[in-house]
Amino acid sequence: MLEGLDNNHIGMDSAVIDTKIPGVKLVQTTDFFYPNVDDPYLMGKIACANVLSDLYAMGVDTCDNMLMILGVSQQLMEEDKPKVVGMMLAGFKDLATEAATFITGGQTVKNPWFILGGVATSVISFSDLIMQVPVSAQVGDVLVLTKPLGTQVAVNAHLYLLPANEEKWKKISGIVSRDQAIASMSRLNRTGAILMKKYGAHAATDVTGFGLLGHAKNLVSNQHANVDFVFHTLPVIKHMYEVDQIVSFRLSEGFSAETSGGLLVVLPKAKAMAFCEEMEAIDGWPSWIVGDVLSGTKDARLSDKPRIVECEQHSL
């Protein structure tokens, strides 16, 4: 989140730092979190995608180097450590390869709980940044979201399968599937970063732990113009709105946490549909125009009756 700006161009999602070479910038970000799925390989992919999203949110679609951060749980049986850690490393490495970057090191420590994440670094020309800081939203622009909401609802609800949560699970039995959430979380936001530059985005951020409205409020509060972000549509992973009505994660309020969520992109209205169409043509996943940029007081909110769009299943 944006804490303040200085001459080094601190960005919303990544630090943009001056180097000793004129016109060349260092763009860097770090992130880590606890595992939220029980497949170590897929968890490695999700962690890699999550770290890279902060670069992509700045319109930086190339990553020169990644470091991996891994805290290995002390509760893990010794005989299981080589397999579990190896699978996590493999998942992280495979998605880094898909992103055309390299893992050159990192840090592994023992920890009471598993943590997984990394550091992503890109060295670029200043002219290649989509924005020095993402503060150019204009009245009449629209808001585009590149991944559906509900990832954390899906993975948390899946925990209700455990015997200790049997009563809660009975309420949502038969309507919970994590497959689409996992497929979404492990998908790179790289295409969105590339197309943001092509279609002239005015601002962007990625949607993660603070939910759609949490990140939108931070983004809008830093705009040059006095604008509001008003959301009229909430794209949601199939069945997750129904689950949220039973066991509330504040999904319908716009505040459900997301892991490795999509990009929230502010685009000129005339270019937004073409952006969405090209995104789907390249990635095979839809994007949505979810809101409007209106004259206001630098606030973000849902409209009175936001439309819920359920997203069909995508395979892993």
Furnish the topology, listing elements before pairings.
Elements: E1 15-18, E2 24-33, H1 40-56, E3 65-73, H2 81-98, E4 103-111, E5 115-125, E6 142-145, H3 151-158, H4 166-172, H5 179-185, H6 190-198, E7 203-206, H7 211-221, E8 227-237, H8 240-246, E9 263-267, H9 269-283, E10 288-295, E11 300-311
Parallel strand pairs: 3-4, 8-11
Antiparallel strand pairs: 1-2, 2-5, 3-5, 6-9, 6-10, 7-9, 8-10
Keywords: ATP-binding, Kinase, Nucleotide-binding, Selenium, Transferase
GO cellular component, one term: cytoplasm
Protein name: Selenide, water dikinase
Description:
With 316 residues, the protein is an alpha+beta fold. The protein folds into two domains: 15-128, PurM-like, N-terminal domain (60s Ribosomal Protein L30, Chain: A, 2-Layer Sandwich), CATH 3.30.1330.10; 142-311, Phosphoribosyl-aminoimidazole Synthetase, Chain A, domain 2 (Alpha-Beta Complex), CATH 3.90.650.10. The chain is built from nine helices and eleven strands. Strands 7-9-6-10-8-11 form a six-stranded mixed β-sheet. Helix 2 (81-98) links the parallel strand 3 (65-73) and strand 4. Helix 1 runs parallel beside helix 2 and helix 1 packs parallel to helix 6 (190-198). The longest helix is centred in the first third of the chain and has 18 residues, at 81-98. It holds the Pfam family AIRS.
Structural class call reads: alpha+beta
How many domains would you count in the coordinates? 2
So how many helices? 9
Number of strands: 11
Strand content: 25-35%
Low-confidence stretches: 1-10
The average pLDDT score comes to 89
- The helix content, as a percent range, equals 25-40%
Largest sheet: 6 strands, mixed
Domain PurM-like C-terminal: 138-298
Pfam family, one: AIRS
Protein name: Selenide, water dikinase
InterPro entries: PurM-like_C_dom (IPR010918), PurM-like_C_sf (IPR036676), PurM-like_N (IPR016188), PurM-like_N_sf (IPR036921), SPS/SelD (IPR004536)
